[in-house]
Amino acid sequence: MNASPIPAAKPIIGDEERAAVDRVLRSGMLAQGPEVAAFETEFAAELVGGRTCVAVNSGTSGLHLGLLAAGVGPGDEVIVPSFTFAATANSVALTGATPVFADIEADHFCLDPAAVEAAVTERTVGIMPVHLYGHPANMTALGEIAARHGLRIFEDAAQAHGATWDGAQVGTFGDFAMFSLYPTKNMTSGEGGMVSTGQDDLARRLRLLRNQGMERQYENELVGLNNRMTDLHAAIGRVQLTKVAGWTAQRQANAAVLDAGLEGVVVPPVAEQATHVYHQYTIRVADDRDGFVTALRSEYGVGCGVYYPIPNHRLPSFQRELDLPATEKAAAEVISLPVHPSLSADDLDRIILAVNSIAKAGA
Ligand SMILES: *Cc1c(COP(=O)(O)O)cnc(C)c1O
């Protein structure tokens, strides 16, 4: 191969981000302050239809504090997918509640509403759908199930900034929703998370929980943590927020090129009601997925990822005996190809050539 390897993901950090960090450093006020407050307001307007936003130090903290703020704890069950990053179930388990793993829909890799309904028990208090890879979960069907059983919805929108379901942005469906701002996500603050909610009492408890239970200094109202975002991180996030819509459009354009060019593999279907923001562009390869990944990387210099090779219910941290066939099949078949906004037309051609050549050789 002539050219240098194509990375699977590439955070874009420019002069504006550097200038924003420098501005905060010069101000001498580094911890949570005016930058965080501005970031929350701007994120609310841009991505969640004006719902209240509360910034925290990671996406995982956002899920954890959101659940605590919603009163989830020991004795409660929350239905989660097993086919996701472990932070989803971890956040439930850390409250003392039990994550109950349900299977996914084969097409879109998100919670299967029928499997969710079958998993409801007397202890179930909520459903935590993950908008995996940037494709929204079926919020119509999940909303109906939640209404029927009196359950709450907690959205894991870590990978789905700007995705929509039936015309509404993700992050506007749940009691709360969490967006991750980790460097490889669709936008970043370095590390960080944003929680959106339409409920004032929940927003207030989130703010208390991230700051040792204090609204007024040393008048701690409840037991909390230090999960605050710093102004340095918020300053980066504010710049990225002005760019994320353009990056998403570029991801979608890249995905369209891949859709049109790839042969011999299953390209990612998009539900009629959905806008996919392609955090990942994930194909399925039925035979010898791991060999396919090795060939992509070593023979063609195409970086790629397997998200996620071990379903959460089988991780050493959970070890549940469950039969989740769509989850197992996905874990054995998925490969995420580069789709990030820095790809050139040549990069896309190379990715297509590589995938099609390997698929043809294996067929
Ligand atoms: C990244 C991610 C998280 C956790 O976010 P962090 O900011 O890394 O803590 C949670 N759920 C999913 C699906 C993720 O991809």
UniProtKB/TrEMBL annotation:
The active site is at 185 (proton acceptor). Keywords: Pyridoxal phosphate. InterPro entries: DegT/StrS_aminotransferase, PyrdxlP-dep_Trfase, PyrdxlP-dep_Trfase_major, PyrdxlP-dep_Trfase_small. The modification N6-(pyridoxal phosphate)lysine is found at residue 185. SUPFAM superfamilies: PLP-dependent transferases (SSF53383). GO terms for molecular function: pyridoxal phosphate binding; transaminase activity. One of its GO terms (biological process) is polysaccharide biosynthetic process. Its cofactor is pyridoxal 5'-phosphate. Belongs to the DegT/DnrJ/EryC1 family. This is dTDP-4-amino-4,6-dideoxygalactose transaminase. It comes from Jiangella mangrovi. The lineage of its organism: Bacteria, Bacillati, Actinomycetota, Actinomycetes, Jiangellales.
